[in-house]
Design goal:
The complex is a heterodimer. Chain A is α/β, with parallel strands linked by helices. Helix content of chain A is about 45%, strand content about 15%. Chain A is built from nine helices and seven strands, in the order βαβαβαβααβαβαβαα. In chain A, strands 3-2-1-4-5-6-7 form a seven-stranded parallel β-sheet, with helices on both faces. Chain B is of the alpha+beta class. Chain B is about 25% helix and about 25% strand. In chain B, β1 and β2 form a beta hairpin. Classes of the chains: A alpha/beta, B alpha+beta. Chains A and B meet through loops of A and β2, α10 and α13 of B.
Chain lengths: ~250, ~450
Amino acid sequence: MNNALGNVQSVLVLGGGSDLARAIVRELGGRLRTVVLAGRDPGSMAPAVAALRATGIETVEAVEFDATAFETHDGLVAELFLRFGDFDVVLLAFGVLGDAETAARDGRAAVEIVETNFTGAVSVLVPVAQHLRSQGHGAIVVLSSVAGERVRKSNFVYGASKAGLDGFAQGLADSLHGSGVRVLIVRPGFVHTKMTQGRDAAPLSTTPEVVARAVVDGLRRGRTVVWAPAPLRYVMAALRHLPRAVFRRLPL
Amino acid sequence: MRDALEVGETRDRLLTGWGRTNPTRASVWSAPSVGEVAQRLGTLDGRGVIARGLGRSYGDAAQNAGGSVVLATALDDVLDLDLTKGELTVEAGASLDDVLRTLVPLGWFPAVVPGTRSITVGGAIASDIHGKYRHGSFCDTVSRIRLATPGAGVLTAGPDTESEVFWATAGGMGLTGVVLDATLQLQPVETSRMLVDTEHATDVDDCMARMLEGDERYRYSVAWVDCLATGRAIGRSVLTRANHATLDDVGSMTPTRARSFAPKVRVAAPPWVPPGVLNRVTVRAFNELWFRRPPRERRGELQTISQFFFPLDAVAGWNRIYGPRGFLQYQFVVPDGEEAVVRHALERLSAARCPSFLAVLKRFEHTSPGLLSFPLQGWTLALDVPAVGATLGALLDDLDRRVADAGGRVYLAKDSRLAPEMVPVMYPALDEWREMRAAVDPRAVMTSDLDRRLDLRGRTHA
């Protein structure tokens, strides 16, 4: 259970291989008793599992989860809730950036991005929300992106997949109002992680630790949206209202 | 709760405790009769059930996320009142307010009352509440209860019959079953007035010395401590102690007037208060006013029962002034000889600048036999703080360890943040309690958010 100061006891990470997710789990801190990392390759998560166990968390497990194996989602989610009991937080952290140039020209490549970032997220969050609704408490943390706030021409497939995810998460949040379950949408900017390795950092780039602190603080305060770093909120508020003709010409 | 449930109705509700933190959803059923409660316990499954009264537990003791909650407030019949022996039998949903309005004009008073009239008899038993009376807690004055259990039917228990069940239920946070009704031992009073002595203490040591020296002259004793005072004034306090006034004390009043009891709610907190209204500046100003309030010493002042016991009941919904993020109350007790822990706690809280109103310092002269009961012979300190920040969490975790090392404990009825691994240390009879609990509820039907958060059943150790 969550406590009065926002400390949680159990967390399920969908996309357990994500650097951002691990930083968030570390930041969730001292009251954790159960951490389940679900990802494509449980073997590669072994060091993360060992590190978390070393901090004294009683139950830490890695389980296999494939975001695009939609038909497995219902069963897997049911099994995890049965095996580990209540989850105070379910963190949706998987996503692919893909190659923007290829995705703009190759339909197959574009669909791969959308299937992971959007369809996969919807497919797994619907049963997750159902289980949280019946447990009467909990929070879903969705790692969205500033890229979804206004889709840019330079990576519009990725941006569109995040825009879809963000919209889905907002609607899900409203549908869960009064159920005891909350949704926190996280909109990070450019974060230095495995996913962005080798790419040029955008202005206001940040680290997983900064995002993690923003997420945990947002959970404590009962926020519905957090931006990381925080000033991005105002940058995006301005960009959102730029006329198309101007926005199109920006070197973004 | 927004609008009251009709008796017999079931509806999904978001519930919190008095501290307004951590809302969770449960299916709330307003029980129409004790018979139906007993019947329903036998049929429930899934995420279990907990009884709820007036929601004055600060944390999550009367919440059950995703499960059922039996709202007991409609079960408030007086079943028997024996005015020769001073015994009252009431259903468990009866409030202390109901009880007092019935009893005081007749010249009787419960032996133990807490700081609010808005609690139910069932809740008082489940938390084994205490008050300004130092020689016993609520369950010491209960001679018999009827308890509906999921596994053993309806049991009659008391200190003399089924005493193991009784002392597992006294302070058992409602997790052994639902109390249906209870018989309370009363004390005779001549009037509804209190004869109150007030004095100021310059710091916490002075306050404790005064309590040790003078408490035995009074039936009730409490000290209000300024947690924001610093340096040499750490723990400066106002000590108020009282006895029930006799007819002689009240002078020319008629006995009827002298026993009148008609408490009023004077003001209500606004329905919504922005966060941060209570901050260091406003709270410091309030505390300063409290301590400047003359005179520094006053003897034999006549106060009403409500003025002395229930000052906060005059402000309806006072918990809302902490704003939408809510607050928590930290209350611990340490045995005699561990006074340093009280001083340490005041120093730490003062240094952390938590905007805390007056803290309450009291003595217990007894240790309750309840397996999970809080009262322990020694000193107890309680204070309210807004539920914000990771620093507060770390500070309270530190204090928990100091309290546990001193052989003390934190009060579960107030708790909303304790770490589960502290419970077996603070409550050494936990294993015994778990056995009793399993005996009356083998299918684990009784549960609450507090139960889950603190792992009281011991699932993960089983």
